[in-house]
Amino acid sequence: MQLCKDKVTENYLFTIGLIYCLQYFVTLRYENIYMTMKRIFIMVFAYFMKTFIKVTANCRTDCPDVCNCTEIIFNRCTVICTDQNLTQIPDTFPKNVTSIDLSRNRIKSISADSLRHLNLLEVLKIDDNLLEYLQPTTFQGLWSLRELSLEHNRLSIRYCSFPIKLFRNLTRVKILKIRGNLLKQS
Fold this sequence. Notes:
Helix 1 runs antiparallel to helix 2. By secondary structure, this protein is an alpha/beta fold. The protein has helices at residues 2-26, 33-61; strands spanning 68-72, 76-80, 97-101, 123-125, 147-149, 175-177. The protein has two domains: 2-61; 66-186, Ribonuclease Inhibitor (Leucine-rich repeat, LRR (right-handed beta-alpha superhelix), Alpha-Beta Horseshoe), CATH 3.80.10.10. The chain has a six-stranded mixed β-sheet, with helices on one face. The chain is elongated and about 70 Å long. A hairpin with a 3-residue loop joins strand 1 (68-72) and strand 2 (76-80). The protein contains two helices and six strands.
């Protein structure tokens, strides 16, 4: 209940501050332009800082226990889960994650739903694992993905590791790394 009151108070104070700022903007013709613009800048800066701090908290609180989550500028979150002997992809990731590195683990497969909700994800690295097969819907919903690295796994053409539909919706991918797999046709 206290959290709710704090939220209402915070929004109320922000609204009062915004009204205060607009009042000075309207009286621009009566006051020194420099002082008015300075007040507007301070209000806009305070608003963006408030937003940035909220997203930052989200990055750390939703971070998987075995991973390191770091906030970077512009509300972006990077998750690094390397060298953890993971056998599967963690269940939860921050909503604003843009980069995930799962390299050097023991992941054999990726469930169809484990990445689907990460629509802001731009970089995904699953190098040096034990991946043998990828389901056709493994990367479904990763609309923002630009770089996908699956190097040094056990993916092969012989066992249909790369289903035809696997990359269908990955229209933004510019970098695809698959070196070090069993991709030779026998």
